[in-house]
Amino acid sequence: MTTAEPRLALATRGLTKTYGDGESLVRAVDAVDLEVARGETVAVMGPSGCGKSTLLHLVGGLDRPSSGEIDLAGRRIDRLGERALARLRRTDVGFVFQAFHLMDELTVVENVELPALLAGHSPRRARARAMALLDRVGVEHKAGSLPTALSGGQRQRVAVARALSNEPVLVLADEPTGNLDSAATLDVLRLFEELHESGQTLVIVTHDERIAATADRLITMRDGAFVDETRLTGGTSGRLGALAGFES
Amino acid sequence: MQQEVVLALLAKEPSHGYQLRARLRQALGPVGEAMNAGQVYVVLTRLEKAGLVTTERPERPNPAKTAKDPADRKTYVLTPQGQQRVAEWLTEVSWPKPDLAEFHLKLVAAAAAGLADPLGIVDTQRRELLRRLREAQRAAMAEPDGSDAALLLEGIVLRLQADLRWLEACERSWTTRRSTS
Amino acid sequence: MGRLLLVARLAARDLRRRPAEAALLLLAIAAATTTLTLGLVMHGVAGDPYQRTREATSGPDIVASVALNPFTGAAADPAPLEDLAGADGVTAGSGPFPVAGSEIEVGGQTADVQLIGRSVEPADVDQPAVTDGDWLRDGAVVVEAAFAGALGIEAGDTVTLDGETVEVAGVAVTAAMTPYPWSNCLVLCAPFRDDDGEGEGAAGGGPARPEPQVESLTDPGLVWVMEDELTAFASSPDALSYVTYLQLDDPDSAQAFADARQPQGPGDEDKPFLEPWQHIVEQVTHVERNAQRVLLTGGWLLGILAVASVAVLVGGRMADQTRRVGLLKAVGGTPALVAAVLLAEYVVVALVASAAGLVGGRLAAPAITDRAAGLLGGAAAPSLTAGAVLTVTAVALGVAVLATFVPAIRAARTSTVAALNESARPPRRVGWLVALSSRLPVVLLIALRVAGRRPRRALLGVASVTVTVSGLVAALAAHAELDAQLAANPDPRMERLGDVLVVITVTLVALAAVNTVVSTWATVLDVRHASAVTRALGATPAQLSAGLSLAQVVPAFAGAVLGSIGGPLLYDAVDQEDVVMPPGWWLVAVVAGVVVAVSVLTLVPARLAARRPVAPILQAETA
Q: Once rounded to an integer, what is the mean pLDDT over residues C568-582?
């Protein structure tokens, strides 16, 4: 981390991604302006096909925009080449996917240390860091197991640990609870809350209202564009009883 | 608060009022936070009048449990009628009715009269529900795993989620109606 | 009946759904069966025309000859040959006929010839069979068929023998002498060749001999002339040799008969030299037998490669097949039906391939076995025996069945639900490889892990390259020896053997190349998801494509090393004669060449895979 850290972890201006052309032109992401402050948790909601996953891939450097700018931690990334984007994914971004995308033939700890190895860290350091991260997400006792032996919630915890491997500026999560039951979802939400408290910047794309409701900021997306933005903070406290039908 | 809840809590053993309150607090967690201290006693008094509960004076008052309220010294016991009432209550299948018709009619009326944009109403409602969801979800996240209250909170969360999904359906429907009209 | 139809229809559907794979499979098996057919056809060819010629010409069991003593200059004496005709066991004989050296000139070409003086009347033993024109008459000669073919001489032509012009009455074949240019020398020949120099009396010479004082011939052709005209055409009419053809009551005892009467060393030069007919057969069929060994070995090597190819192809589509099996079973197919469908597909391919191989091999055989007109029936097409057809078909079917049996059984045994749910074969975990790879550079890390996910495919890769390189090294060694032989001794048949080697080598390499591409492609498809994740985690496309490529190169390197050890062993096994091992730098060059070739072959699929956009793959696999 540099000394002069920009206030924003992520900023996009007029970010656009189109597919096809002419009659069949599809605007997957349409002129999106997004600013995410450091330490902020932003949820992007919308029906499937609204372009929220594409947005995530664009800001994470998995895909290149058709036009518009992306600033990641104060650095323009929208015109970077494949190689530079790969390096960026290695150092500045951590991904968490709906399908976990863990490698089934690698043990939990081997999965978590993979990004560090790809980034060229020594095997010893990568292993130590992976163990620390597994400890942090609470699955250190499963370090030697294969992912298939883990529950969905545990797998997603491992995936989060992997995303944190190289201390990214930004963690990007794509439907992180999409494959999880209610209890496991709660588990992941708690983990995100811990990350949030430790100052990690998070952008989560989801159609799970529970994640959306717990974010600092909720953005609603339709047809590739932002249509609504809400901060849900503010007191409604003491109404839980009413919500449960337990009127006093 | 329903009388049957207090009755049922007495079914296990005769209890003091403060014991009942503590049991309620434990089961409800943050949901029961707004519960008034005297509320249990109000209900108990009503139950006593109805002959479902009687009180006993302790023969050997426990000096360790010095209550502030004189009523607290009493132990409440179920009467046979009270026990019967509990048994009946347990077999009942009543369920809180969600009043969706009201909101639905609100949208229809607003649209018909041109008084307000149904989508605006939906949006406002959605934010309100999200705020509620946020509160419930945060409370749920704060509960330790396996607590009684966590289960209750999960119920709240899931119902709010269902409501939000319905609002989404409302939004979709009213958007297409607007664009086709 | 209905079930059979169902199986056939399902199998046909699936084959049509993936025509490229079916074609590759066909190609792999057809290449192997073609080579095998060639090898088997050659087996029948060797010896057969000679036998026919022997019968047609009353071929001799013993060819006995005496020549002028090259060291003393003493003239040859035909008397011992006449004595031989009366020896025990001899049932018939002809000769002795005089033999003289000469030079033929025709159409501007000159060549050495041996002239054998014969009469117009047919001899009891060795009456050359005329294939063109007529037998001897006054003032006309007859030319041996292979020699005539080589010089382009036909009946009715005019040739010059030692300056004398003479007409060619006809062209004939004989079983008493190996066809040109491997002719036995009845007169003095130079240089003395080890392999067929026995034809002259001076062959088994001692250490301290004086230089031959008589002019000698080089690779002479054979011309029959009227006995009384012989001296007119001879270069040195004084230096005559004599030859006698004998038949024995037991032709199999010819070798023993010869051994008992053979000249034993210095001082024995005046004794006749005896050549048993088996020796001539040996000479005649030498090249064919070598070609046959090469073809059979090549056929087996190609067969092994075909198995590897089929296994990779089949394994690569296992994931897809498993789902299909699930579907089949879900709608009520029994495991037997499922296995039958899977097997049917490959059996159909194998049958077509073996048919193609039989036809291809049968058509290609004459090109390799054609020995011009050296012997009667030599130019006739070699025949396919029922046994050969059966063998080739059985091998092709074996390849298909072997390569599909395990997957078919496994697929059929998989539980229906698991088969429906399972989208892919789960990768295997090779713990030590994962641990080792984490200590290596990123590219190697990716390569070893990719290879480790499918250890059996990696082993097949090793096996495939081992087989190819073994074949390649053996072929190179054989080629080198052949070149050396050809340099000393040009022979169209040996050149053709060289062509056979080249064809087999090229087929072997081509099949191995196909294997490599197929294997790379299967790997690329297989690790598509893992590749996408790896790239999402920060591997560059260059690292990934290098890794995918290396995942093939590493087993190929292992295979090349094994093959360069196995190659000489294979060559040793195929060629029973003294083997000149190829020099070490050859093997190093072959290994390096294989590594480069595999890198190049895998480059395109690996690059394509590594540059594919990542996002859609990660999206598509959310389920």
A: 67
Q: Under CATH, what is the fold of the domain B3-91?
A: Arc Repressor Mutant, subunit A (1.10.10)
For C129, the 3-state DSSP assignment is strand
H or E, element range at C292: helix C277-316
Judged by a CB distance cut-off of 8 A, whether residue B170 touches chain A is no
Q: Cα distance from A145 to chain B (closest Cα, Å)?
A: 24
* A183 touches C: beta carbon within 8 Å: no
Can you tell me the ipTM of this complex?
0.86
| Averaged pLDDT, A214-243 | 79
Report yes or no: C510 and C305 within 8 Å, Cβ to Cβ. no
Q: Chain A contacts of B140, Cβ < 8 Å?
A: 186
Domain that holds residue A184: 40-56+81-232
The pLDDT value given to residue A135: 93
CATH at residue A180 = 3.40.50.300
Higher pLDDT, C50 or C350: C350
Closest in A193, A212, A234 to B141, CB measured: A193
Residue type (1 letter), C573: A
Q: Which two tokens stand for residue B137?
A: 């979800």
- Location of structure tokens 């088996």: C278
Kindly report the nearest CA distance between residue C440 and chain A, in angstroms: 9
Model confidence over A88-140: pLDDT tens digits?
A: 888 899 999 888 888 888 999 999 999 999 888 999 999 999 999 999 998 99
Within 8 A of B32 by CB-CB distance, chain A residues are: 241, 246
Contact C342, C315 (CB under 8 A): no
Quick check: B133 contacting A, CB < 8 Å?
Answer: yes
Which of B35, B130, B165 faces A232 most closely, judged by CB atoms?
Answer: B130
Q: Residue A68 falls within a domain, yes or no?
A: no
Domain tally, chain A? 1
Expressed in angstroms, the distance from the first to the final Cα of chain C is 41
Q: What is the average per-residue pLDDT within C437-449?
A: 89
Q: A106–C622: do the CB atoms touch at under 8 Å? A: no
Q: Least CA distance to C434: which residue of chain A?
A: A106
On the question of pLDDT at C317 being above 70, the answer is no
- HEC sequence for C517-530: HHHHHHHHHHCHHH
C37-62 average pLDDT score: 71
Backbone Cα Rg of chain A: 19
Task: Decide if B136 touches A, using CB distance below 8 A.
Answer: yes
Nearest-CB residue to A99 (from C452, C615, C622): C622
The domain segmentation of chain B, as residue ranges, is 3-91, 100-180
